[in-house]
Design brief:
Oligomer: single chain
Structural class: mainly beta
Distance between the termini: 91 Å
């Protein structure tokens, strides 16, 4: 097949396969920055059948039947792993090399279906593979037979460009071909003495270009023009030229120079802000500019300029004087585009493969649904958004619709990831190092804004709504997921103190200044927080007055205002009880229950009903002898059993654990430890430390408050205590009851 026939074959194949994406050549008015208006053709929308090109792959070469892509990334050991795939014009693909740190394919410097595959990183045993579809055995070149330093650096058709070191240590280049089993080696003459390493190998039919870095200090780049027929350097240029069959393109300080290779006639083109001359397509030149990521074209026919693509990352020459460009457009996204010039001189831009990625910055996925439930991960939610590409700055704002309060998270210089996210603890954001204030359940909006680093397309701004939900918590009176303490002073005034877990310091702290609930609470001989027994989705409170009547205060869950509704009288005769403990689900039905100890020491279970008018079922006796304890506290499911548990302190100050069986009864008690008579109040609060296990507050001498974090292990149910300042603003000597 002649080169001309080969070029026509691939051009025809691409046009046939991708005819659905072909463009009409129509004028447009978008020009390069600082340039005159020209013409532009926008790529047609990619068909669903457009071949796929992997996101992590780079186009590195092309031939009549397709093009070569290389995939590379570092493995867990830091080794660079490379894999190569040939993408055929019919949409299929063939793996050339698997991901491997030693083997890699060398693309052909000419427009050819032949690629070279090295057996190792030394590149001394080379196999040529023809990717045109003809099944033939690879042609093997064992360069070790030619010299100890011979290694592959490039490929021209079926001829290897080989580098070696001469006896004087100078770099040499050889053209190595094979006829049958015989290797033929031709040394390239005219190679200068300052060659240190090859950085690029390119060329066109009959001419090779070897771009190298010199041995000087500082090192400089230059290119050798090589006549492949005579193996002779014909010129040394200070840059890397781009060649077509008839022309050569070089950059200079004013723009670029196009040289007729047959006559030597030069045409200088002065364009502002030129960054790089990319190559020829038909009778036009493709180039980039310094302040834009796009690709632009200059017509050699009439001098007009045009913006071709919004983004370009890589390009290779293709058959028929075309360019294959890896990049994208705002309208049609990322992929491989074919650039050519039509008969009327206007550029033709055809998308021939797609990565499925957007060029403009967009959100392509998020886990934020209509409901955000903070229960499954112990009060945390892993917000995440996936964007169409990396390289951006972003900000996410969560707004509580009722109050307008916000949580803001910023992401700076996201360069190696296409997603942003954070583990949200359901709190308002104040500053780094501060726990913030818990956010209440309810309606929220989220807003994501992002600015692409490359400036392609508009800044992104998108958002949505969600409902924040949590199941009712034992001591949560303002519906924000964190335990509160209720504090009654000696004159009967009741206050609510909200808490939050400070992850920065690893301790529970106060979340607000405390909410005043009301006065007159000294009228209760006993008062207790009992969890959600009435189905209000908020913690409730009961109190026994001096006459023995039981009063019920349903929780409202209000994040502002009154956390308790007006009280309801449940019944009389409760004066027989000396102790109350509420909040644990002792029966395994998901509803908090109440236990009471009477004057005889008998333990009675009052099962929660979920009915606000009759919050407790008739009592059931579950034990006796409990008058040995002077403090009983419901602690929730402390040890991972089938239901909630109790802790009880005896008169000697020893604390005991009663594991609930799930039927209102308990396993045999286990000793937690002594010394608990130093505490004036012991309060089971539920999960205050956001680790999935219930915790305990203990108030001791000198107005000190401690947190005992639950372990989930019944043998050692609590970790070492930590101090907390949740009641720091309250004079504890005036406190009568904490519950």
């Amino acid at each position: 097949m002649t080169p001309g026939t080969a070029r026509r074959t691939l051009a025809a194949a691409i046009t046939t396969v991708l005819a659905v994406t072909a463009l009409a050549a129509a004028p447009a008015a978008t020009a390069a920055p600082g340039e005159a208006a020209g013409t532009r053709t926008a790529p047609a929308t990619a068909a669903e059948t457009l071949p796929k090109f992997p996101l992590d792959t780079t186009i590195v070469g092309a031939g009549p039947s397709g093009f070569l892509g290389t995939t590379g990334h570092a493995d867990e050991h830091g080794r660079w792993m490379v894999g190569d795939t040939w993408f055929r014009s019919d949409g299929g693909s063939t793996v050339v090399t698997e991901l491997d740190s030693a083997k890699a394919a060398t693309p052909n410097a000419l427009i050819s279906d032949i690629v070279a595959v090295s057996d190792s990183w030394e590149r001394r045993v080379v196999r040529l593979r023809d990717m045109s579809g003809t099944v033939t055995a690879p042609v093997v070149f064992d360069l070790r037979t030619l010299g100890a330093t011979h290694k592959l650096v490039g490929l021209y058709g079926s001829t290897l460009l080989v580098q070696s070191e001469g006896g004087n240590g100078l770099k040499e280049f050889h053209l190595v071909s094979k006829n049958g089993s015989t290797l033929t080696e031709r040394k390239i003459t005219g190679v200068p003495a300052d060659v240190r390493e090859v950085t690029e190998v390119s060329g066109t039919e009959g001419t090779g270009v070897i771009t190298y870095r010199s041995t000087g200090s500082p090192a400089a780049s230059a290119s050798l023009m090589v006549d492949l027929a005579s193996a002779t350097v014909t010129a040394t240029l200070p840059d890397a030229p781009r060649l077509s069959g008839k022309k050569m393109l070089r950059e200079d300080a004013q723009g670029f120079v196009v040289t007729d290779r047959a006559t030597g006639t030069e045409k200088r083109i002065a364009l502002a802000k030129i960054s790089r001359a990319v190559g020829f397509y038909g009778e036009s030149v493709a180039y980039t500019v310094t302040d834009s990521p796009g690709l632009f074209g200059y017509s050699l026919l009439d001098g007009s300029t045009v913006k071709l693509l919004d983004k370009v990352t890589h390009s290779v020459s293709g058959p028929g004087d075309v360019l294959l460009v890896q990049g994208g457009s705002i309208e049609h996204g990322e992929g491989i585009y074919r650039l050519d010039t039509g008969r009327n001189g206007y550029p033709i831009v055809v998308k021939i493969a797609t990565t499925g990625q957007e060029t403009a910055l967009k959100v392509v996925g998020t886990n934020v649904g209509p409901v955000v439930n903070l229960d499954p991960a112990n009060g945390r939610y892993p917000f995440s958004w996936t964007l169409s590409h990396s390289d951006f700055d972003a900000t996410v704002k969560l707004t509580h619709k009722k109050t307008g309060r916000t949580y803001v998270q910023e992401f700076k210089d996201i360069r190696f990831n296409d997603s942003v996210g954070f583990l949200w603890r359901g709190n308002f954001w104040e500053r780094s190092g501060h726990p913030g204030e818990p956010m209440p359940n309810g309606d929220y909006s989220w807003k994501l804004t992002a600015k692409p680093h490359d400036g392609i397309g508009p800044d992104l701004e998108t958002g949505g709504d969600f409902e924040l939900v949590r199941s009712p918590k034992v001591h949560d009176f303002n519906n924000n997921g964190t335990p509160d303490l209720l504090v009654r002073d000696k004159v009967g005034e009741l206050r609510r103190v909200d808490t939050v877990y400070d992850v920065w310091r690893g301790r529970v702290v106060r979340a607000d200044s405390g909410g005043y609930i009301g006065r007159g609470w000294q009228g209760y001989r006993q008062v207790e927080s009992v969890g959600d027994v009435a189905g209000t989705n908020a913690a409730d409170v009961i109190g026994i007055d001096g006459a023995g009547a039981l009063w019920f205060h349903p929780g409202t869950g209000a994040d502002s205002g009154a956390p308790l509704a007006p009280r309801v009288r449940i019944g009389g005769g409760w004066g027989v009880y000396t102790q109350l403990a509420g909040g644990s689900d002792l029966t395994g039905d998901g509803r908090a229950d109440l236990v009471a100890v009477d004057k005889a020491g008998d333990l009675w279970l009052y099962k929660g009903t979920g009915n606000v008018n009759q919050p407790f079922a008739p009592r059931k006796k579950t034990g006796f002898g409990w008058n040995i304890y002077n403090k009983i506290t419901a602690v929730g499911n402390l040890a991972g059993g089938p239901a909630g548990d109790l802790v009880a302190r005896d008169k000697a100050g020893v604390l005991w654990l009663y594991l609930g069986k799930g039927d209102g009864t308990y396993a045999a008690r286990t000793k937690i430890g002594g010394g608990w008579n130093q505490y004036t109040h012991i309060v089971g609060t539920g999960d205050a430390t956001m680790d999935g296990t219930p915790d305990l507050y203990a108030i001791g001498p000198y107005d000190t408050v401690y947190t005992y974090s639950g372990t989930g292990n019944w043998r050692v149910p609590f970790r070492t205590r930590k101090t907390t300042e949740v009641l720091a603003d309250l004079p504890l000597q005036n406190v009568d009851k904490v519950f």
